[in-house]
Design brief:
Helix content: 40-55%
Structural class: alpha/beta
Number of strands: 14
Distance between the termini: 10 Å
CATH topology: TIM Barrel
CATH architecture: Alpha-Beta Barrel
Number of helices: 12
Strand order of the largest sheet: 1-2-3-5-10-11-12-14
Strand content: 5-15%
Number of domains: 1
Largest sheet: 8 strands, parallel, barrel
Shape: globular
Order of helices and strands: EHEHEEHEHHEEEEEHEHEHHHEHEH
Radius of gyration: 21 Å
Length: about 400
């Protein structure tokens, strides 16, 4: 049963113009003042969501995005700041891209944020999908196997640091601590100072390819999964695969349990109006994410078409109307969204958390309006229906 409602914001600034007939993604450039405007946007979203009773505002870690799409380089700093501006809203790291970090620095930073906010920053880890970011900051991404190997060893190290008062590690990429003398003795163990305020650590990860290896690794550490909303195509198969991974580990779960489902949405009095209003945002989303694989496999000529002004309509990728009909977006009146969520509950009885988010390119004023509208006319009705049940 869905009990909590959250939102994911990847960090786009107000772009000024959006849609397929505007500036191509790779040609966008903004000033430092414009790019830093994303911080005030985050503050505004956090305050509205806190007032409206949302559970978590998730942010994405990204770097070097002069194009204005994903402009938050440090989720933990943002989380501490916003936790001190709000009352109950939690701030989620969706996600810390571990191949761009030293695992012990990331573990320390999270533990510090956990203490400073008394548990209101939620930990999250990911492997990354921008070569410009990951490879520049010292991690592998083009080599997918190396990326997976590094990621898994890093997460193993962080959970050792969280859960053990003293720990050591020797693997393919890391030997911690290094063998060396220290203040009169031979160093053999380390201690994270401080360890997190709340143990065990609640950790989340995107469910993207849903391969057995990755899902089994998540279950090993008790990591929860976010499906959809930018981290994967909204695929029912991923949710079933996540349940099967728990079954392989001998853990009985309901379908959808330990998952958060992401749904991109736009509310309007009618479906037609919602699709018309949101189409430019959907097109900006496609310009950004299509070449990165988030619209499914694309041919080189489709990627080329998306990369030029006005090319989307000739690319053959699904329209927003088709995405809505496939169930990966919701567009329409609030009562239709209530029905959509109730059907989702029936399909995934273990699902407790839903992320609702506006698409890449949606202006701040529209995002805030949509969050307030959803809280007033969708979330409140869902909560009343569950209380009656």
């Amino acid at each position: 049963m869905i009990e909590k409602y959250s939102s994911l914001f990847a960090g786009h600034i107000d772009l000024g113009e959006v849609g397929q007939d505007t500036t191509p993604a790779n040609e966008r450039r903004y000033s430092d003042v414009e790019l830093a405007g994303v911080f005030a946007k985050c503050e505004a979203m956090a305050k509205v969501m806190d007032d409206c009773g949302y559970g978590t505002l998730w942010f994405a870690e990204h770097h070097f995005q002069r194009e204005g799409y994903e402009c938050i380089p440090n989720n933990l700093m943002m989380g501490v700041h916003l936790a001190h501006m709000t009352k109950t809203l939690k701030i989620g790291c969706g996600f810390n891209i571990t191949p761009m970090w030293h695992p012990l620095r990331l573990a320390e930073d999270y533990a510090m944020a956990d203490w400073l906010t008394k548990g209101r920053v939620i930990f999250g880890v990911g492997r990354g999908y921008h070569t410009r970011e990951v490879e520049t900051l010292g991690g592998p991404l083009i080599d997918k196997e190396a990326n997976r190997d590094v990621f898994e060893e890093q997460v193993d190290i962080m959970f050792k640091a969280f859960n053990q008062a003293e720990f050591s590690h020797k693997g393919k990429y890391y030997e911690l601590p290094p063998k060396l003398p220290y203040r009169g003795y031979e160093l053999s163990e380390l201690t994270l100072v401080p360890r997190p305020w709340k143990l065990p650590v609640e950790c989340w990860q995107p469910v993207v390819s849903a391969q057995d290896r990755g899902l089994d690794f998540m279950v090993k550490h008790g990591i929860k999964g976010i499906v959809g909303g930018g981290s994967a195509l909204m695929a029912e198969g991923n949710i079933h695969a996540f349940q099967r991974a728990h079954e392989r580990a001998g853990i009985d779960t309901k379908l959808g349990e330990n998952l958060c489902l992401g749904i991109t949405y736009h509310l309007a009095p009618t479906r037609e109006q919602a699709i018309r209003e949101a189409t430019p945002y959907y097109e900006e989303h496609a310009k950004m994410f299509g070449p990165l694989g988030f619209l499914g496999p694309l041919k080189p000529e489709q990627i080329e078409a998306i990369g030029r002004r006005g090319g989307i309509r000739k690319s053959g990728i699904p329209t927003l109307k088709e995405a809505f009909e496939a169930g990966s977006w919701y567009c329409g009146p609030p009562e239709g969204f209530v029905e959509f969520l109730q059907q989702t509950e029936e399909k995934f009885p273990g699902l407790e958390i839903v992320n609702v988010q506006s698409a890449m390119g949606t202006p701040e004023a529209v995002i805030l309006e949509q969050l307030e509208w959803f809280a007033g006319d969708v979330m409140s009705k869902m909560n009343r229906a569950e209380a009656a049940d």
